[in-house]
Amino acid sequence: MTAKKLTVVSAGLGQPSSTRLLADRLASATVAQLNAHGTDVEVDVIDLRDLAHDITNSLLTGFPSQKLDAAIAAVSTADGLIAVTPVFNAGYSGLFKSFADLFDPKMLRDLPVLVAATGGSERHSLVLDHGMRPLFTYLHAVVVPTGVYAASSDWGSGASSGQSALPDRISRAARELAALVAASDRSARPLDPFVLDPSFSPIGAFSAE
């Protein structure tokens, strides 16, 4: 059986990063769920902080670097996607949005996606439903019902209630994503988001429906 491909996008800016930590935990939980049902998984992790200059240059010139092209291809050819962003000013990060702006609007058609975010306060958790879910719905992806938000208190040693809730949310979201990934068929989606149209511009890089 061909291994499923799980792509993880982390928009964390720091090192170490709570955003990357959450992304890793979600990926591990999803892989464990798939392995438990006899499905092998290949995991590809994309740290957007390492692509920040490439993303900006691509938005300015319309042409991706080799590294950025590979990252977008990893998303477009995945069987499942985990997308995690820090929250700034009640919204997903500009780096995360800039990366998504490079996607063809139909590139993620029927792709199972788990959305997650990190922030300092629990009150920013609405970014999942008011920001990330509409973004991926517009991109024709299938967003799992459970989004995972981790506030600073979820990582603190004194926040026992938060610590008990976060693993539960991770586990539930991972089960939902794993079920969709197991049934996904990436052959039905476009594989090359940078096929050139007659204007010699990357298709969809700046388009809207």
From TrEMBL:
GO molecular function terms noted in the UniProt entry: oxidoreductase activity
Lineage: Bacteria, Pseudomonadati, Pseudomonadota, Gammaproteobacteria, Lysobacterales
Membership in a protein family: Belongs to the SsuE family.
EC number: 1.5.1.-
Signal sequence coordinates: none
Alphabetized InterPro entries for the sequence: CE1759_FMN_reduct, Flavoprotein-like_sf, FMN_Rdtase-like_dom, NAD(P)H-dep_FMN_reductase
Domain of life where this protein originates: Bacteria
Domain NADPH-dependent FMN reductase-like residues, every copy: 5-155
Protein name as annotated: FMN reductase
Keywords: Flavoprotein, FMN, Oxidoreductase
Xref: Pfam families: FMN_red (PF03358)
UniProt cross-references to NCBIfam families, sorted A to Z: LLM_duo_CE1759
Keyword Oxidoreductase in annotation: yes
Annotated PANTHER family: FMN REDUCTASE (NADPH) (PTHR43408:SF2)
Source species of the chain: Lysobacter korlensis
